[in-house]
Design a protein that fits this description.
Blueprint (H helix, E strand, L loop, with lengths): L1 H27 L12 E6 L3 E15 L2 E5 L4 E4 L10 E2 L4 E5 L2 H28 L4 H10 L15 H9 L2 H16 L2 E3 L4 E6 L6 E2 L4 E6 L3 E9 L11 E6 L2 E17 L5 E9 L8 E18 L8 E5 L5 E5 L1 E5 L3 E5 L6 E3 L13 E3 L1
Parallel strand pairs: 1-21
Antiparallel strand pairs: 1-20, 2-11, 2-15, 3-10, 4-6, 4-9, 5-8, 6-7, 8-10, 11-14, 12-13, 12-15, 13-14, 15-19, 16-17, 16-20, 18-19
Amino acid sequence: MRPYITKLIAILLVVGAFFVAKKIISNKKKNKPQTTVNIPTAFVVKAENEIIHITIDETGSLSAKYKVDLFSEVQGVMHSTNKEFKAGISFKKGEVLVKIKSDDYYANLQAQKSVFQNLIASILPDIKLDYPNVYNKWDQYLKGVDINKSIPSLPEVSSDKEKLFLTGKNIYTTYYKTKNLEIIYQKYTLTAPFNGILTEALVTPGSLVRNGQKLGEYINPSEYELELAISKALINTIKIGKEVTIILPEDASQTWKGSVSRINGKVNTATQTVQVFVTVHGNNLKEGMYMQATIAGQEKLNAIEISRNLLIDENKMYAVNSDSLLQLITVNIIHKTKSTVIVQGVKDGENLLYKPIPGAYSGMKVTLKK
């Protein structure tokens, strides 16, 4: 009996060991992870081309319409004048801006005038004998020559013989040499070309001024120009004389009215914009002020307005095709504002991406949400 019990126990142990081993092996098997694909949601809106009224808002800085850079064409020591030569000082037309010491040059000029006067006097006897009919003309001219005044223009000649006679006596050479000295002498004194104000002063009385040296900057503070960069797509809507509203960005209550005065005939190759200059008058305007200009444009047909952050590479944006895949479409940008762009080239009914998708790429599978 005992041997049967022993065999039974052995069989039970073997069977139990088999099931335990099977259990252990099954526990060691790892479940394969299931692959999950996250399909992003695309918020879209159907494109509807419509009539859009475009208002051009651009910014730029003011610059004086009449501005003169003051340079010296002669050399010498700067003299003091009735008004200080400093930035902020106003001058009236004709008032002396800069005066340079010219005593030596003035003496040479007077000597040259005297030489010319003596030369005219020396030819009068010959003229009286050979050309008696023009003697009174030259006699009156000599009486009108004053070395303390500008040399008067030469009388008109009556014949070729008279002209040849004057040429042989060096009348013309001496006259133009004297006039040239007069012109240079005038350059020792710079006068205001118009009513204005000094905005820059680079020299002071007593300093040595050299030929070609910049002395300062002078502007007319009553009239300014605002330079704007307008898209070439809109430049045809802007004409000379078109009214422009100008606003101070930090204080919208301060406004001025201007008008388009100039339009450049060249397109900037880098920005595809055209320079437009707006003339503006008014109080409280200063050189270099940063201003905002508003120009009423025109109505654009078959255009839509989208957010600027939807643009890809400046002229593309994403749309969703019938297979729920992202695709890049090329658009024609008509106008840009601070937050939106007006574009053409989009078909009606096309599903346009309304919100950017991080990591988006052409061909990405998306779930549409309108």
